[in-house]
Amino acid sequence: MIASNHGHLVSIASSAGLIGVNRLADYCASKFAAVGFAESISSEMRAQGKTGVKTTTVCPYFINTGMFDGCGTKWPLLLPILDPEYVAEKIMTAIRRDEPILLLPRSLYFFFALKK
């Protein structure tokens, strides 16, 4: 990608990679690492003038894949359990638009804005 100055790196993290969650310290730490990795790669590409190498970091809430069976959501209208096909479609759209970060559901943008 660097040699051809073309490509797109997609890091699948989690919304837990942007905020610490009670009883999920190990999970959050691994997702913080994925977010930091993507940010670092993006910064390195800019510093090297490799504007054709893009990054997108995906930070979804729970996805209905079986990994989180038994988990619920306190506010299903604001933080629904996500359908895998919906998430895949949104990731492809984010890649096509060169979006640096994708938060799912969209309500997460509001919550993370409040955090800052």
TrEMBL record:
> Could you confirm whether the keyword Cell membrane appears in this record?
no
**Keyword annotations for this protein?**
Oxidoreductase
Q: Name one GO molecular function term.
A: oxidoreductase activity, acting on the CH-OH group of donors, NAD or NADP as acceptor
Q: Name one Pfam family in it.
A: adh_short
Any one cellular component term from GO for this entry?
A: lipid droplet
The organism's place on the tree of life at top rank = Eukaryota
Annotated Gene3D superfamilies: NAD(P)-binding Rossmann-like Domain
Record-given protein name: Uncharacterized protein
In which organism is this protein found? Bambusicola thoracicus
List the taxonomic lineage. Eukaryota, Metazoa, Chordata, Craniata, Vertebrata
